[in-house]
Amino acid sequence: GINPGRLGAGATGVPFTDTIRLEQICGLSVPGIKTYETSSVFIYDMIDRYGGPEAFYGDHYISSVSPLGFTVTGRNGRQVNYNYYDSRKLTALLMDFILDSLRTQLEFGIFRDTCFCLGSGKNYRFLSELNSKHRFFDRIVPLEHPRYIMQYRLKEKQFYTDMYVQKLKTGGQ
């Protein structure tokens, strides 16, 4: 992913997981907080089609390029998510931290042949540039970001969940 969203991993610590799905699907609760994130809806529909949380998380590890989430105050005065790449200054400030975080996570022993990048635009370009310099993964396969799908391609959601599952089960083929 990009970086934790305030209503998903920013609240639960689990990427693309709001408190509703964390409790209803994973059986874990975050007392005193109730969040809903559209990306979480897509991811857990896809996980269900994959075979459920045990099967999915037994095969895959989800993380974000930046493990830190950011917000800014929107025009309406409410907090909105802010991406690590929305400001060159922020990206530059985070670069060493992002690299250290990626290296630390790779030490978990995850397979490095294929990385699925959730986000086929700026996130994919940034991760691809990092990868060309540091060779974290053999290849990176871009997937449309769940938020994009839920916001702009909702009528095609079934196509995208099927495509995710097919690519995840075949190593991106």
Number of discrete domains = 1
Question: What is the C-alpha radius of gyration, as a whole number of Å?
Answer: 16 Å
Indicate the low-confidence ranges by residue numbers. none
In percent, how much strand structure appears in the residues?
Answer: 5-15%
Order of helices and strands: HHHHEEHEHEHH
Number of helices: 8
Q: What distance lies between the first and last C-alpha atoms, to the nearest angstrom?
A: 20 Å
Q: How many E strands?
A: 4
Summarize the biggest pleated sheet: 2 strands, antiparallel
Q: How does the helix and strand content classify structurally? A: mainly alpha
Q: How would you describe the shape? A: globular
Helix amount, in percent?
40-55%
Strand order of the largest sheet: 1-2
What would the average pLDDT be, to the nearest integer? 96
